[in-house]
Amino acid sequence: MQIYYFGLSSFKITSKDITVITDPFDKKSGLSSPRGNADIVILSEKNNSLYSFTSSLSGEPFMVTDPGEYDTKGVTISGIPLKQEQGYVTVYLIEVEDIKILNLAHIKEFNLKEEDLEALGDIDILIVPVGGETVMDASTASKAVNSIGPKIVIPSHYSIPGLSLKSQGIETFAKEMGGKTETLEKLTIKKKDLMAEEIKVITLEPLR
Question: If I label 98, which of 2, 28, 46, 71 is the partner at 20 to 30 A Cα–Cα?
Fold first, then answer.
């Protein structure tokens, strides 16, 4: 499995012949909209065009736009709605190749209930927004990481070149996490690779 980052809370997850894209954004973000073929598109806030711009994508993807359970094309998806200032944002557990990825999308308040955390089970990879302003700040994000206890953390929704939204850089979150981070163009991972005892923070360079 490979994971790529577009910017904001938009990622591309590829597995064999399947491509999953989360939260594709429009150009009002200041960034070029994600492009390419998608087999599955997951939207955390379907009525917010900043996170649900699908016009630049190709293919005939299976659309996941609401909370609930989905099982399609070898991918299992579970959506949990979280109440936020602007309404509800759905966070998703995505299971690919027996790897459990929890994407916290663009939440500002980390208010997953204890029973939800228990139901999610052990999380392999946590995608967590860290840029502050409209999403969690670095301190809140680090507390979320500690509550969930994943093996790998991938920060999202921080300041990158071109982004017009006000946001903190990745450095603040890195400091919160002890300063130990690894930067990659993409994350290539298999289940057998997820044996580390310490939480690893991996920053992905945005696709251009």
Answer: 46
